[in-house]
Amino acid sequence: MDQRVTPPGETPQPPSRARGGVGLFLTKVAGVLLLLVLAGLIVVWGVQRYVEDRLTPDPTTIARASLDGLREQNRLSAFAARYVAVVTSRQSQLVFSTERTLIMPGMVRYEVDLGKLRQQDVRWDANARVLSVTLPPVEIDGPQVDLSAIREYGSGGLLTTFTDAEQRLDAANRTAGQVELMRQARAPAPMKLARDATRRAVERSFAMPLRAAGVGGSVKVRFSDEPASDERWDTTRNLQEVLGNGG
Question: Cystine design at 169: which of 100, 139, 230, 238 (Cβ 3.0–4.6 Å)?
Fold first, then answer.
């Protein structure tokens, strides 16, 4: 049997109290290690978030850059068409009459004033990943008449010989010819072609930078004067709201 002798003047300590002190020390060490591990995880998470925020492309920022680039173009002409007006004017005086026919070709350009684009016209739907763009209406520039290709024909007669009927008829025909060119240019079919061509050009202008940055999504373009479709557009976040500044 092991018997320990306690030196005189020294109070003996129970073995259980000594073991309790060691356990408390180990608990504190474990707590400190746990706090260090948690702090390290928080730091790692913060670094990952920072890197993601810095390296992950922001669709609204890309869209804003594309919008600024379109504004710098001022006017976009994605479609042009050539028309031919054929008009005839007649003049009668007493028993005499004469007529003149004009064939007038002309070029018409369809343009959009990109300077009118505002940041609220560009909206990003993060859930559907759709960038919606609303353009100003298509405007017609022209007609640019090809003067060298104009052809005029007349029946002649005494009125053209002894009066200025021919000059008056030619002037009337030229005015009527320009009106006719614009009437043809504003017809539904060419206006649709002009909108579709402009729509494709603007969609490419926004979609290409998004694809280059690795941002998935689609671009949808409409015109402000187009009738509303059955499709419901997201209007929750426009660029002005996202970026916090005016257009």
Answer: 100
